[in-house]
Amino acid sequence: MYQEIIKKIVELGDSLPAIAGHTLDVGKSKQWLTQKDIEIETELANLINTFPGAHSVYAEEMHNIFIEDENVWIIDPISNTINFIQGMPHYSVVLSHLYKGETQFAVVYDPSNKELFTAEKGKGTFLNNKRVYVSKRNQDMIFMIGPYAVPPHREKFLKTISILSQNSSVMRNLGSLGVHYAYVACGRADFAISFNYDTFPEFAGKLLVEEAGGKFTDFNGEALTSTTEGIIASNAMIYDQIKKLINFELRNSF
């Protein structure tokens, strides 16, 4: 089942780079939507519907109501569609599988770099089939932050950037939250912060980071849910420090 999903995601993802930068935004009720978003979500949902048992799909474009089921598949067909529309790299196809409420499997595929990040519960995190782990850095840290928050979170976002920048060395925003979390999982970044407005890439990010030895919670240290806002993905060494910095800044700035 998972190998079928991986094969389909790679196939669909590999169709994107050739047309990146030459694709229209067709969104009407929302901005940043392409026919490829719809196609990828539809093809993955159709494949999932061939699997035995009870399944539901929770996805960004056409299945955006979370329905409790024994098997829930969460899909972000193109994580950071704006990068794809503009012809910039670091968009990704993201999928996770929940069984009885627990995330069992995750994929983040960055077709621009042909990098496939996968994780299965209890079996570790892999980049192109090679086991990877979170970093062990606790100083001179590299962190990912995004997306650029819209009101009412913009001021919180900017304040958080300020306090984290004073305590870390390098900040990056590649656009795709799927890629951000994957980079924490493989040790390229030490932590990632998001003022997220949905959770489509977060369930995959959670399993990738945790199976690589890291921690993934909301800003208060609580477990991820479909309505969580505010994410910390971090190596285990600095998690408490990052959570303390964020909560001190948010409590004392507003």
Structural notes for this entry:
- The chain has 254 residues and is α+β, with helices and mostly antiparallel strands.
- The chain contains 7 helices and 12 strands.
- The chain has 2 domains: 131 residues, Fructose-1,6-Bisphosphatase, subunit A, domain 1 (Fructose-1,6-Bisphosphatase, Chain A, domain 1, 2-Layer Sandwich); 112 residues, 3-Layer(aba) Sandwich (D-Maltodextrin-Binding Protein, domain 2).
- The longest helix is centred in the C-terminal third of the chain and has 15 residues.
- It is globular.
- The mean pLDDT is 90.
Map the helices and strands:
Blueprint: H1 2-13, H2 35-48, E1 55-59, E2 71-79, H3 81-86, E3 92-99, E4 102-110, E5 115-120, E6 124-127, E7 130-132, E8 142-145, H4 154-167, E9 170-172, H5 177-185, E10 191-194, H6 202-211, E11 214-218, E12 231-235, H7 239-253
Parallel strand pairs: 1-2, 8-9, 8-10
Antiparallel strand pairs: 2-3, 3-4, 4-5, 5-6, 6-7, 10-12, 11-12
Binding site for Mg(2+): 60, 76, 78
GO molecular function, one term: metal ion binding
Keywords: Magnesium, Metal-binding
